[in-house]
Every structure is written in C-alpha cells, then in structure tokens.
Amino acid sequence: WDMLMIEEFMWEYPLLILAGFVAGFMNTMAGGGSLLTLPLLNFLGLPAAVANGTNRVAIFMSTLSASAGFKSKGVSNFPFNIYLGFSGLIGALIGARIAIDIKGELFNKILAIIMILVVLLIVFKPKISYSELMERLTGKHLFVSMIAFFFIGIYWWFINAWIGFVKLFLHYYNRLDLVKVNATKVVIVLIYTS
User: Fold this and answer.
1) Who's near 95: CB < 8 A, 6+ residues apart?
2) pLDDT (tens digit, 9 = 90+) per residue, 108-165?
3) Is 47 left (phi over 0), alpha (psi -120 to 50) or beta?
4) pTM, full prediction
5) How far apart are CA 101 and CA 99, in angstroms?
C-alpha cells in the first residue's frame, strides 16, 4: 500500500521542483511566481490557506538569495528599502491575521478576482519614458511610499499573488529603473517574509 502511494505521487515531486525553480527565477527577475505556485499547490491537494503559507517558505529562500546577489553587484537603495520593508511588515501582520481567519471558499473567490485584475494590470499597464527616471526616495515621496507599503503589506500577506504591482509603484511613483526596482523589491519581501 505504501509503495503504491509513493508511485502514485512520484510525478508531483519533479513538477514541484521545476515550478519552484521557475517561480524563483520569475520572482527575482520580474515577480509573479506565486501565480504559478499557488494554483499548483492547490491543484495538488493543499487547502488554499496551507498552499498560501507553504508558498512563503520558497519566497523567503528566493528573496534571501536574490538580495545577496544584488548586494554583491553593488545594487542597493539602502535605507529606502528598509523603511518600506518595515512599513510593509506592520501591514503584513494584519494581512496574516486576515489570511488565518478567512474561510477557504471565500479565499478562493478573492484569489480568482485578484488573478483577473492582475491580468488586466499586465495588459493595460501605463508607459513611462526612461528620461523621466529621476529617483524620488526622500521627503514626501518616502512618506507616501511607506503608507502605500503598509497597505501592500496587508495585501501581500493576505494573498501574496502577483506582487508585480509593487514594482509598478516603485517604477512609476519612485522613478526607479528596473534593476533598482528588483533590488529594492527583494529586500522588502525578505523583511516581510522574515
């Protein structure tokens, strides 16, 4: 019986490993790996809330290695990313509480709506000229960013699907180039996830 169970589920392990590598690459380069891993974990039988929590382990590992990689290349927005990370951490505590308290059926409905919205954001995202990229990391821009990341933290720990809109915010509002956006995002996510 045990051998039959092992053979029946052997195809799941390579699939999970492959999805983990692809999602880790996606999250470091662009974001959105959870749009692959969350439905897969759910499809393989994990309840939505458990899949959501399990997904965080992979996110922690990928952001830890990505943060170290960006730092080794000298790409950083310190202390800006730390301010946003801790602001988001406060929101994340609230979002985690919501995720724990919500029923699985309602969670699945919310996740489906968010996935539709994500597709719309990907298709209809605004354009910005690279000549407009004058970094805005202090003063009122830092304050607004910290408030935004408090609410992003709530969302992030409640759903954690397609956090690419964080990159859009950093790019369009704070005027960071895409390399600095990714370097900033992975440090913020590392703080949230820790």
Assistant:
1) 153, 154, 155, 156, 157, 158
2) 787 777 767 767 766 776 665 655 568 889 999 999 999 988 988 887 777 666 566 6
3) beta
4) 0.71
5) 6
- Tokens representing residue 20 in the block: 């983990």
The secondary structure of residue 130, as a DSSP letter, is G
Distance CA 191, CA 134 (A): 26
Q: DSSP secondary structure string, 99-126?
A: HHHS-HHHHHHHHHHHHHHHHHHHHTPP
Other Cβ atoms closer than 10 A to 132: 8
The maximal CA–CA distance of the chain, rounded, in angstroms, is 65
Euclidean distance between CA atoms 188 and 38, whole angstroms: 21
The C-alpha atoms of residue 56 and residue 82 are separated, in whole angstroms, by 20
